[in-house]
Write a structure and sequence with these properties.
single chain; alpha+beta; Heat Shock Protein 90; 2 domains; five-stranded mixed β-sheet; two-stranded antiparallel ribbon; transmembrane; transferase
Length: 347
C-alpha cells in the first residue's frame, strides 16, 4: 500500500514538472520571439511546438530515470542524456516548423538553433538531476525504514526468546515441587498442578502483548503466588501495597514474576521462619515505580545463589522496550534486599 502511494506521488511529481516545463518554456520563448519582431501567428505556433517537444523530452527523461540512481563515477551519463534529449527536442521542432515558416524565417530559425540547444540542454539536464536527487532521497528513506523494520524484528525475536527462557525456568521449579509433594501431600500436588495449568494458560494468552495494564499483571502474579504458597505453606507472606490509580498504568507482561521469584528464592531458601515479601507500586512523574523487598540471612550474599538470569533478562527486556539501562536497580540495606523497576508511561 505504501509502495503504491509512493509511486502515485512520484507520478504526480513528474506530471507537475512536465506541465511546468510546458508553460514556462512557452512563456519564455513567446516573450523572446515577440521582442525580436516575429509575427504573432508564427510566434505562437513556434512557441507551442517547441514547448510540446520540451514537455515530451522532459517526460521521457523523468520516466527513464524514475528508478535509476547513477553511481558517483557515472554522473557523465546524466550529461549524455541531457545532450541527446536536447538534440531530439531541437530536431523534432525543426522538422515541424519547416512546414509553416517562410524560408526567410527558417534561415533566422536555423541561426538561433545553437542558443536554443544550450537552453534546452540546461533545462533538461536540470530536470534529470532533480529526478536523480529525488530518487536518492527516496532510496535513503526506504533504507532507513528497512533498517528500522529489521531492528524491530530482531528486538521482537529477542524479547520472545527471553520470555521463552523465563517460562521453563519457573516451570522446572514448579514441577520439582509437585514431584516432592506427590508422595507426602498428594492433594496439594494435585492442587498445585491445577494452579500451574491456570498460570501457563494465562501466560500463553499474553504471548503477543508487550504491554498490559498493571491490574492484569498483578492478577497473573497472584496465580504464581498461589503456586508458591503451596510449596512454602504458611511461611510465605505477601504484602502488596498500591494506590487505585496505578492499576491502569502499563507494564511489560510477566516482568514482575521473575522479580518475585528471585525474592522468594533468596528470602525463603535456607530460612525456617516466616518470611514476608513486600511489593509496592506507585506512580510518580508519569513513571510507574515497583519495588520488591525480601529479607535474607545475615552474612549471606544475595547474589551467591543461582545464575542471576532473572535480573539480567529483565534488564535486557527493559532496554529493548524503552532503550534505557537505568530502569532496574537493586540495593541491600540491613539484611533487606530491594529490587526496583521504573516503567515510563507514555500517552
Amino acid at each position: 500500500m505504501k509502495d503504491k502511494l509512493l509511486l502515485q506521488n512520484k507520478n504526480k511529481l513528474i506530471l507537475i514538472i512536465c506541465l511546468s516545463i510546458l508553460l514556462g518554456y512557452f512563456v519564455m520563448q513567446y516573450a523572446l520571439m515577440y521582442r525580436s519582431g516575429f509575427p504573432s501567428e508564427i510566434t505562437i505556433k513556434d512557441s507551442i511546438i517547441n514547448s510540446l517537444m520540451m514537455m515530451l523530452c522532459c517526460y521521457a527523461i523523468s520516466t527513464t530515470l524514475n528508478y535509476y540512481i547513477p553511481k558517483p563515477n557515472q554522473i557523465w551519463k546524466v550529461l549524455i542524456i541531457g545532450f541527446i534529449m536536447s538534440g531530439i527536442s531541437i530536431l523534432g521542432s525543426r522538422l515541424v516548423v519547416q512546414y509553416y515558416l517562410p524560408k526567410e524565417h527558417l534561415k533566422i530559425y536555423d541561426l538561433i538553433i545553437p542558443y536554443r540547444y544550450i537552453v534546452n540542454f540546461l533545462i533538461l539536464t536540470s530536470v534529470a538531476i532533480f529526478i536523480i536527487v529525488w530518487n536518492i532521497q527516496e532510496e535513503y528513506i526506504s533504507n532507513i525504514k528497512r533498517k528500522q523494520d529489521s531492528e524491530n524484528q530482531l528486538r521482537e525475536a529477542e524479547l520472545y526468546n527471553l520470555r521463552q527462557q523465563l517460562q521453563p525456568h519457573f516451570l522446572f521449579n514448579s514441577l520439582n515441587s509437585i514431584i516432592a509433594l506427590i508422595g507426602s501431600k498428594p492433594d496439594e500436588a494435585r492442587n498445585m498442578t491445577f494452579q500451574l495449568s491456570d498460570f501457563l494458560r494465562g501466560t500463553l494468552r499474553k504471548e503477543n502483548n508487550q504491554l498490559i495494564v498493571l491490574q492484569e499483571e498483578l492478577n497473573h502474579l497472584e496465580l504464581y503466588l498461589d503456586i508458591e504458597k503451596v510449596r512454602f505453606g504458611h511461611r510465605l507472606n505477601i504484602h502488596i501495597d498500591h494506590d487505585q490509580d496505578v492499576l491502569s498504568t502499563k507494564i511489560p507482561a510477566m516482568i514482575l514474576q521473575p522479580l518475585v521469584e528471585n525474592a522468594i528464592k533468596h528470602g525463603l531458601y535456607n530460612v525456617t521462619e516466616n518470611v514476608t515479601i513486600s511489593i509496592k507500586c506507585f506512580l510518580d512523574n508519569k513513571t510507574l515505580h515497583v519495588s520488591i523487598e525480601n529479607p535474607f540471612e545475615p552474612g549471606e550474599s544475595v547474589q551467591s545463589k543461582g545464575t542471576g538470569f532473572g535480573l539480567t533478562s529483565i534488564q535486557r527486556r527493559l532496554f529493548l522496550l524503552f532503550g534505557r539501562n537505568d530502569l532496574l536497580t537493586t540495593q541491600t540495606e540491613q539484611n533487606i534486599f530491594t529490587s526496583s523497576i521504573k516503567i515510563p508511561q507514555y500517552d
